[in-house]
Amino acid sequence: MVHPPTPPRRVIVLDAFLISTGLVSIAEIGDKTMLLAIMLAAAWRRPMPIILGIFVATLANHTFAALAGSVLARFTDGDWVRWAVGVAFIGFAFWALIPDRFDQQPDMTEKTFSGVFWTTTAAFFVIEMGDKTQVATAMLAARFDSLALVVAGSTLGMMLVTGSAVLLGESAARRLPMRWIRVAAAAGFAATGLWVLLSG
Question: What does DSSP assign to residue 199?
Answer without folding.
Answer: H
